[in-house]
């Protein structure tokens, strides 16, 4: 191969990579998501969150439950190294310490008071019950998720046989129900909020 042809192909390939990366970044920021992450409490809507987070890791350092992880996806440079939570491994205990240390405003400050303040200002996601595998919907009394919920009786109620019923408008998406579920795979999962 002649040097001229080699260089031409090399620069064409390089240009294609930059073009692809730019389109991928623009696609993500315009609402096309590669994956929905469960963000820590107080997170801005996803597009604003991604544009505002400076990847300083202070939120994870402040978390006493060590539940905040960081996206490790070199093919998604926009979301790479941003904080998220995997409730099945470690759920958020709603201490709000991460919201108090965020220097960029990607996580809005939320008072560490229990009750109405958190219910009003935190919406990480919503718990969803899979009634096909939930013990309480299949002849066995369980109710572990209801007892794990910090807003039991408000966000997650128990019906006959301790069948969990999620009050979507009150569920903050902390994931304590998902973490505590004794069924494998878990019969209750938190679906990240899709805030535009």
Can you describe this structure?
The protein has 196 residues and is an alpha+beta fold. It folds into two domains: 1-32; 33-192, no CATH class. Helix content is 31%, strand content 11%. The strands form three sheets. It has a two-stranded antiparallel sheet. Strands 3-6 form a two-stranded antiparallel ribbon. It starts with a helix and ends with a strand.
Keywords:
two-stranded antiparallel ribbon; 7 helices; two-stranded antiparallel sheet; globular; single chain; 2 domains; 196 residues; alpha+beta
Q: Topology, please?
A:
Elements: H1 3-29, H2 46-52, H3 58-62, E1 68-70, E2 83-85, H4 97-101, H5 116-121, E3 125-129, H6 144-148, E4 156-158, E5 164-166, H7 176-180, E6 188-192
Antiparallel strand pairs: 1-2, 3-6, 4-5
Brief account:
With 196 residues, the chain is an alpha+beta fold.
Spell the H/E element sequence. HHHEEHHEHEEHE
User: What strand order characterises the main sheet?
Assistant: 1-2
Note the main sheet: 2 strands, antiparallel
Q: Please report the distance between the alpha carbons of the first and last residues.
A: 50 Å
Percent strand equals 5-15%
Radius of gyration: 21 Å
| CA-based shape | globular
Number of helices: 7
Low-confidence stretches: 19-33
Write down the overall mean pLDDT. 87
Number of domains: 2
Helix content: 25-40%
- Please give the number of β-strands: 6
Structural class: alpha+beta
